[in-house]
Amino acid sequence: MIEFPRPLDRALLMRMITVAGSDNKEIAGDITVSQEERRWEFRPEPTWASGNFHLVIDTALEDSAGNNLARPFEVDVFEQVDKSPAPELVRIPFVVSAGAKK
Question: 20 in a domain, yes or no?
Answer without folding.
Answer: yes
